[in-house]
Amino acid sequence: MNHKAFATANAILFALALSCGAAAAQTAAPTEDFKPSSLNQPGQQYPQVNSQGYARFRIEAPKAQNVSVSLGLGGSGGTALTKAADGAWMGTTAGPLDEGFHYYHLSVDGGTFNDPGAQNFYGSIRWESGIEIPAHDQDFYALKDVPHGRVQQILFASPSTKMPRRAFVYTPPGYDQNQKTRYPVLYLQHGWGEDETAWSTQGHANLIMDNLIAEGKAKPFIIVMTYGMTNDVKFGKLFSFDIKPFQTVLVNELIPYVDANFRTLADQPHRAMAGLSMGGMETKTITTANLDTFSRIALLSGGTFSLEDVTPDFKAKVKLVFVSFGSRELKDGKVGFPGGPRMDPKANDEALKKAGINSVFYVSPNTAHEFLSWRRSLHELAPVLFKD
Amino acid sequence: MNHKAFATANAILFALALSCGAAAAQTAAPTEDFKPSSLNQPGQQYPQVNSQGYARFRIEAPKAQNVSVSLGLGGSGGTALTKAADGAWMGTTAGPLDEGFHYYHLSVDGGTFNDPGAQNFYGSIRWESGIEIPAHDQDFYALKDVPHGRVQQILFASPSTKMPRRAFVYTPPGYDQNQKTRYPVLYLQHGWGEDETAWSTQGHANLIMDNLIAEGKAKPFIIVMTYGMTNDVKFGKLFSFDIKPFQTVLVNELIPYVDANFRTLADQPHRAMAGLSMGGMETKTITTANLDTFSRIALLSGGTFSLEDVTPDFKAKVKLVFVSFGSRELKDGKVGFPGGPRMDPKANDEALKKAGINSVFYVSPNTAHEFLSWRRSLHELAPVLFKD
Predict the structure, then answer these.
(1) Contact of A375 with A208, CB cutoff 8 Å
(2) CATH code of the domain covering residue B358
(3) Opening angle at CA B155, ends B150 and B157, nearest 5
(4) Among A374, A382, A386, B107, fewest CB within 10 Å belongs to which?
(5) Do B259 and B375 share a domain, yes or no?
(6) For B214, left (φ over 0), alpha (ψ -120 to 50), or beta?
(7) What chain B residue is nearest to A116 in terms of C-alpha separation?
């Protein structure tokens, strides 16, 4: 791994370290207007969320000795549950959580289990429970009565890994009607611990696009989501990650399959790559090594571009650089690993602009290294992605 | 509910009562060649399965008082786990399980949780753990290096339920290349407690079709899978199920959407419906009430057709009747609710044939009311479905 990728990996680790998912603790009693989370399994009353963003849990395990909830990657949003009169374990977070989606799990007598009330989402190299704190701007990813695109599962041949591999492909509304239209393509990567299901479930990428297209705010494009092979590396050992196997799958196998099987604009000006967190690191590494393949690059909580990235080849071929973070990932406007180099993504953005690069920088307000940052980032990215 | 549907519901209840998922108990020690189940979460070593079909579980919950495994709807495949030297709870089933897929869950100190080692599948109105006992004939639903169709998520407008609804659509290999080809359509329903994800995950409907088509054994057709709205009814109260809301969604909303958005052969001779268990009851009720819409009908562990179903209209319009069961659902060749009427599906099949109906009857060897019966049933159905 070269020093630039190293710096990116550092930034990701730092960002992860910040990701507790819980806002500052609060001592006032929560408002008693709790309702079932929108991500509950059918008919389940718990977990619940109130209008302030507190979460309340109820777990039936009458003979257990202790039950607690771990929220977020860092586990710092832990909530110990206590036995209620009916024998169920109950508890409410100490304060409101950030708006948006959070992974969590239970600890029951020392074992790690999911909340039987909540749906599961793949994160942290396991299926985790998920809870959704309604965001004030949730309308942009809501399921509405507008024309809907489709999310398709494809199985493509991968000689390099000796197995058929899975990807999900979003085709925009009208794709099947407009048989002569060809579309640009975004290759969109998940983060460490996640997989190819992330962007179209917890990410709502399809609904974000459907809504933007219905409002005339984004031109239709295809999105391809596959597994970034990120999870063979143990957390904390990102530096040993070898990009080559995934680069081969993506560039030599998946892109040709997609161009052969979908009505794509199959050239560099109409091909983009974006990724969140470790998927951003993959995106930066793969796109800069394949500038004849990709023209548009987006890193969502996954590092930045700086002037040292702007080679003559880069300047000639890259049509857009998009960098975003959740506001809680930045400290004094900077992001970096404690003790390591600190990057200033806003300063980098300004320097890139001055160097003639089409650079866009976005900060998601009051969110951390979590999916609301990335939903919002996609919502900001899509309108400008294939604009120029 | 009329008496015919009642008899069908009875049959389903009876079938469910038989579904323990565990074959006869065995006292000899299992062969020590256990391997991780193919349905485990990435990197997880447990649960494991041996070459005889025994399952072994390992759950970390060091402070728990008791941990057990419930296998199958009836829970009769229960396995109590005991604490091993390393503090983990371990246990092996008393005997081999039937080949194929089984739902299960854990009981941990009186609470119901999923096995953190296994992937989850929607059954019993909740996401359950799943385990796969390799079947001797598993090749027919294996992921192979053949041309693959796609499974697409669609969101279709449903004025009757005032919300966009989800379905999955399987389009066969070549669908996007052969722009002038139109295809017959099978509407394929899950059972009680399941949803529209069942057939393309635990059912492997897409892989079954891909393999049959690659071998030239089935002509390509489209499969549409949506939620049958079966799960609002409490288990054991199937008689109060009202088919009309789902019939409206299927016939008045989904079928027009599919015919408008996919290259279908949009007429009665090229439209089929099939369902498993309670989905079979839905299939029988909806198809017989809509004989101008459907020509081919399949009930998988979901009742039978008898001579009293053969009205002149039925005889004129129905091109195929397919009925199947797992062998363990039949007793002396019959299926029925204890104390209620017993049906003889083989005798019914023969009577239908004599009455001039194109009837097919299939029994899956050594399986119960579980998904291997239904994978095999689809594998038998697909080659003959649109043949005549």
Answers:
(1) yes
(2) 3.40.50.1820
(3) 145
(4) B107
(5) yes
(6) alpha
(7) B113
DSSP state of A340: S
Handedness of CA A234, A238, A241, A247 (dihedral sign): positive
How many residues are given for chain B? 388
pLDDT digits (tens, 9 = 90+) for A242-291: 899 999 999 999 999 999 999 999 999 999 999 999 999 999 999 999 99
Distance CA B95, CA A253 (A): 45
| Backbone CA torsion sign across A172, A175, A178, A182 | positive
pLDDT tens digit sequence for B175-201 = 988 889 999 999 999 999 999 999 999
Q: Is residue A76 located within the same domain as residue A183? A: no
Chain B residues within an 8 Å CB radius of A64: 64-65, 108-111
Please give the ipTM for the structure prediction.
Answer: 0.86
**Backbone φ and ψ of A252, nearest 5°:** -95, -20
Helical residues (DSSP H) of A39-172, grouped into ranges: none
Is A62 within 8 Å of B112 (Cβ atoms)?
A: no
Query: Looking at the domain assignment, is residue B245 inside a domain?
Result: yes
> At residue B49, what is the residue type?
V
**What whole-number distance in Å separates Cα of residue A205 and Cα of residue A218?**
13
- Residues B176, A112: C-beta atoms closer than 8 Å: no
Tokens 């997609």 sit at which residue?
A: A258
Which residues in chain B are closer than 8 Å to A200, comparing Cβ atoms? Answer: 153
Structure-token pair, residue A282: 């993959």
The two tokens of residue B224 are: 């549409």
Question: What domain range includes position B173?
Answer: 3-17+139-385
User: What are the residues facing B331 on neighbouring strands?
Assistant: B334
Residue B233 belongs to a domain: yes
CB contact under 8 Å between A60 and B110, yes or no, is yes
Q: Do B340 and B320 lie in a common domain?
A: yes
* Identity of the residue numbered B166: R
What residues does B364 pair with on adjacent strands?
B326
Query: DSSP characters for B188-255?
Result: EE--TT--TTTTTTTT-HHHHHHHHHHTTSS---EEEEE---GGGSPTT-GGG---HHHHIIIIIIIH
B274: CB partners within 8 A, 6+ apart: B186, B187, B188, B189, B280, B283, B297, B298, B299, B300, B322, B378, B381
pLDDT surpasses 90 at A15: no
- The structural domain count of chain A equals 2
Could you tell me how many CB contacts below 8 A there are between chain A and chain B? 134
Find the CB nearest A108 among B113, B119, B144. B113
**With contacts defined as CB-CB under 8 Å, which chain A residues touch B63?**
65-66, 109-110
DSSP A31: P
